[in-house]
Amino acid sequence: MSEETRAVVRDDPENGRYVIELDGRVVGFAEYHMRGGRHFFVHTEVDDDFTGRGLGTQLVKASLDDVRESKGTVVPLCPLFAAYIERHPEYQDLVDEEIMRRIDKSRERKSG
């Protein structure tokens, strides 16, 4: 059995994160904040011992699939989520584009 088939992703809403587990052990998480019905994904981590195995990608995909199933939207502030969505345009419809435009404008003002 490969690691991918043993990996389980689940929502942990009490702690504001999706977790990925291998054999019942949490080896990574994607932190989010809920605001106005949107998942603001802010940070993703995979334990150092498990990096390079595709678990971060699996975590992001499963999280986005879960948000889709619940008819939610996302604001991908985490670079891993943003990059995944850019590489997989089938998830672009989950992104709250208006919020992203506001954030981009705010960042431009601060850097300018």
Features:
112 residues; alpha+beta; Aminopeptidase; five-stranded mixed β-sheet; 5 strands; globular; disordered N terminus
Give the strand line-up of the largest sheet. Answer: 1-2-3-4-5
Approximate shape: globular
Provide a count of the helices. 4
Number of domains in the coordinates? 1
CATH superfamily: Gcn5-related N-acetyltransferase (GNAT)
Straight-line distance between termini: 52 Å
CATH class: Alpha Beta
Mean pLDDT figure: 92
Helix content: 25-40%
Secondary-structure-based class equals: alpha+beta
Query: What is the β-strand count?
Result: 5
Identify the CATH architecture.
Answer: 3-Layer(aba) Sandwich
CATH topology: Aminopeptidase
The succession of helices and strands, N to C, reads HEEEEHEHH
Main sheet makeup:
5 strands, mixed
Q: Strand percentage, roughly?
A: 25-35%
Low-pLDDT runs of 5+ residues are 1-5
Query: Taking Cα atoms only, what radius of gyration do you get, to the nearest Å?
Result: 15 Å
What's the gist of this structure?
With 112 residues, the chain is an alpha+beta fold. It is built from four helices and five strands; from the N terminus they run αββββαβαα.
